[in-house]
Design a protein that fits this description.
With 581 residues, this protein is an alpha/beta fold. Helix content is 62%, strand content 11%. The chain has 17 helices and 12 strands. Helix 4 runs antiparallel to helix 5, helix 6 packs antiparallel against helix 8 and helix 13 packs across helix 14.
Length: 581
C-alpha cells in the first residue's frame, strides 16, 4: 500500500498546473456546489408534495402542492443549467492542464540526452505525450471534481437525513466505512494491474509506430504474419490485464453496490412496516418515506460513482507513473561555461579518447587526431568501427569516458551545448524534412533571402522552378525526391553558416547523377570551414586533406588518399575492392 501511496503523489504533482486555469476551476467548483445543493433541495421539495396529498385532498392542498412542484421543477432546471456551466468551465480548465502537461513532457523529452532514445521506442514516447497525458486530463476534468461533488452531496444528504430522522441517519452512516472498505479492496486488487496495463498500452503503441515506419521492410521480407503475432502477443497481454480490471469493476462497482441497494430498500420497507403496525411510532409520513428512498438511492449512486472515479483515479496514477519515468530522467543541461567566443576556430583535437556506450565495452580506444582549421578530413572504416561515434563526441551528444575532445584548444565540455551546436552543422545520410514549409526547413528564422541564396549556392535553384519557399512540405518530405531533400538539407546547413561541417554518408542514398549535384553542393558548402566526412564510397573523399581509417574503434592508418594507397594497408585493400583494381 505504501507503494501505491507513493505513486499517488506522482499524480498530484500535476495539481499546481491547475493554477493556469484557476478562474475556470473556481467557477466550475462554485457552480458544481450550487448544482449539488439544488438537487438535494429538489428532492426535499418533492417530499413535501407527497406529505400534502397524503391526507384529505382539498383545493388549497392542491394549490400548495402545485407551487411546491413548480419549485421542484425550477430547482431541477436551475441545477441542470449550473451543471452545464460547470462542465464548460471544468473542461476548459482541464484542457489548460492537459496542454501544460504535454508541454512539460515535450520540453523534457527535447532536452534529454541522445542516449535515452537508444533504448526507448518512438511509440512509447508518443504514448506518454498523448495517451498518458490525456488520462490525467480526464482525471482533472471529471474525477478530481466529481469526487469533491460526491463528498459535498453526501454531506448535504446526511444533513437532511439527520434533520428528518436521526436514528435512520445514524444507520445510513454505516455506508461510509463500507465505502472506504470498497475503495481499499478495489485499489488493492487493481492498482498494480492498471499500472502494468498502461505499460503494455505504451508498448503496443510503440510496436504500431515501429511497424508503420518500417512497413516496406516488413512487406519485402514477408514478415507480416510474424509482425502480427508479435503485436498480438502484447495486445493479448493488454487484453488480459484489461479483463482483470473489468472483472474487478463489475464485481465491486456494480454487483456489490446493487446488492447493497436491495438490502437498504428492504430495510426501509421493514422500518416503515414496523412503524405502521405500532401506531406510527416513528412519525413517518409518505413524504418522509420518499425522502428516505430518494436520498438512500442517491447515496448508493454516489458510492458507485465514487468507486468508479477511484477506477479512473487508479488509471491516472498508472499514467502518472509512466510520465514520471520520463520526467525523472536527467536533462541534458547546458552546463558549459563558454556561451560565446570571439575567435571560434575549426581546429579539432582528440587526445587519448576512450568511449563506451555501456559499461567498459569501449567502441573508441586511444583516439588521437588533430584537424586544422578549414581542413577537409574523412573517416572510413567498416560498420561499427566508431566513425559516427567520433562525431557524436564532437557535438556533445555523448561525452568521452577518458581523454579530451578539444575545439579551438578548449575542451568541448567547457562549451555550452547550444553555443557549440550553433557552430556545427550536420548533414545526415537520411535527409529528413519537417512538416511545414520549404522556408521553415532551410531557415527556421524565416529569412527568405538567406534561404533562397543558400538553396541556389548548393545547386538547388531548380527546386524553386515550380515551387516557392512557402510551398508545403509533407511529413518526412514525402513530396520531394531523395536528391531534392538532400540538397535542401545542405542548404539548411549552409544557411546556418557553421565553422564546422559534418557530412555523415551524405551521398549514400542517391544515384550517380544526383551524386554529382550533391557533390558540387558539398564543395560549395566546404568553402571556408572545417569539414568532417564519414564515407563508405572512397571515391568521394580522394581530395580530402587527410583520411583516418578506423578498425574496431582504433585509428589504424591516417594520411592523404595517395599516401594511404602507397602504404598498401587496410585503406588500400578497401579502395581496390571498391574499384575492382
Amino acid at each position: 500500500m505504501k507503494k501505491n501511496k507513493n505513486n499517488a503523489s506522482l499524480l498530484f504533482q500535476f495539481v499546481p498546473y491547475m493554477k493556469k486555469a484557476k478562474k475556470d476551476y473556481f467557477i466550475g467548483l462554485v457552480t458544481a456546489l450550487l448544482a449539488v445543493l439544488g438537487s438535494v433541495i429538489a428532492v426535499y421539495l418533492l417530499s413535501k408534495v407527497f406529505d400534502k396529498v397524503e391526507g384529505t385532498i382539498t383545493e388549497q392542498i392542491i394549490y400548495r402542492s402545485l407551487i411546491i412542484a413548480a419549485g421542484y421543477g425550477a430547482t431541477l432546471i436551475l441545477s441542470g443549467l449550473l451543471t452545464y456551466v460547470r462542465n464548460i468551465y471544468l473542461i476548459k480548465g482541464a484542457n489548460a492542464v492537459y496542454v501544460a502537461i504535454q508541454e512539460k513532457i515535450y520540453d523534457h523529452i527535447q532536452n534529454l540526452p541522445i542516449s535515452y532514445f537508444d533504448n526507448m521506442p518512438a511509440g512509447s514516447v508518443v504514448s506518454r505525450i498523448t495517451s498518458d497525458a490525456n488520462v490525467i486530463r480526464n482525471f482533472f476534468v471529471n474525477t478530481f471534481v466529481n469526487i469533491l461533488v460526491v463528498v459535498l452531496k453526501l454531506i448535504f444528504i446526511y444533513t437532511a437525513l439527520f434533520l428528518v430522522d436521526i436514528y435512520f441517519a445514524l444507520v445510513m452512516l454505516l455506508l461510509i466505512p463500507l465505502m472506504y472498505l470498497l475503495m481499499f479492496i478495489y485499489n488493492k486488487i487493481t492498482a498494480d494491474t492498471i499500472i502494468e496495463y498502461r505499460r503494455t498500452y505504451s508498448t503496443a503503441n510503440a510496436i504500431i509506430n515501429e511497424s508503420y515506419q518500417n512497413l516496406e521492410v516488413i512487406k519485402s521480407f514477408n514478415k507480416e504474419e510474424e509482425s502480427l503475432r508479435y503485436w498480438q502477443k502484447v495486445n493479448d497481454e493488454r487484453y488480459s490485464l484489461g479483463s482483470k480490471i473489468n472483472r474487478a469493476d463489475a464485481t465491486l462497482l456494480h454487483t456489490f453496490t446493487g446488492f447493497l441497494q436491495i438490502m437498504i430498500f428492504t430495510g426501509i420497507i421493514f422500518y416503515y412496516a414496523y412503524s405502521y403496525f405500532h401506531d406510527n411510532v416513528f412519525g413517518l409520513t409518505l413524504g418522509v418515506i420518499y425522502l428516505f428512498v430518494a436520498y438512500t438511492q442517491d447515496i448508493i449512486y454516489r458510492i458507485t460513482d465514487f468507486t468508479a472515479e477511484i477506477s479512473v483515479y487508479t488509471r491516472a496514477v498508472g499514467a502518472a507513473v509512466n510520465i514520471n519515468e520520463v520526467l525523472k530522467l536527467e536533462r541534458e543541461d547546458d552546463d558549459g561555461k563558454i556561451s560565446e567566443k570571439d575567435n571560434f576556430q575549426g581546429n579539432i583535437e582528440f587526445k587519448d579518447v576512450y568511449f563506451a556506450y555501456k559499461d567498459d565495452r569501449y567502441v573508441l580506444k586511444n583516439i588521437n587526431l588533430e584537424i586544422k582549421e578549414n581542413q577537409t578530413v574523412a573517416f572510413v572504416g567498416s560498420t561499427g568501427s566508431g566513425k559516427s561515434t567520433i562525431m557524436n563526441l564532437l557535438i556533445k551528444f555523448y561525452e568521452a569516458n577518458k581523454g579530451q575532445v578539444k575545439i579551438s584548444g578548449i575542451d568541448v565540455k567547457d562549451y555550452t551545448r547550444s553555443y557549440l551546436r550553433e557552430e556545427v552543422a550536420i548533414v545526415l545520410q537520411d535527409s529528413f524534412l519537417f512538416e511545414g514549409t520549404l522556408l521553415d526547413n532551410i531557415s527556421p528564422k524565416g529569412d527568405k533571402k538567406l534561404a533562397k541564396e543558400a538553396l541556389e549556392r548548393v545547386g538547388g535553384a531548380f527546386i524553386l522552378e515550380n515551387r516557392s519557399l512557402d510551398s508545403k512540405v509533407e511529413v518526412g518530405g514525402a513530396n520531394f525526391s531523395t536528391g531534392e531533400k538532400q540538397l535542401i538539407c545542405l542548404a539548411r546547413a549552409l544557411a546556418k553558416n557553421p565553422k564546422i561541417l559534418i557530412l555523415d554518408e551524405s551521398t549514400a542514398n542517391v544515384d550517380s547523377e544526383t551524386e554529382q549535384y550533391v557533390g558540387r553542393a558539398i564543395e560549395e558548402l566546404k568553402q571556408g570551414r572545417t569539414t568532417l566526412i564519414i564515407a563508405h564510397r572512397l571515391s568521394t573523399i580522394k581530395n580530402a586533406d587527410k583520411i583516418f581509417v578506423l578498425h574496431y574503434g582504433e585509428i589504424v592508418e591516417s594520411g592523404s588518399h595517395q599516401e594511404l594507397l602507397n602504404m598498401g594497408g587496410r585503406y588500400n585493400k578497401m579502395y581496390r575492392t571498391q574499384t575492382n583494381s
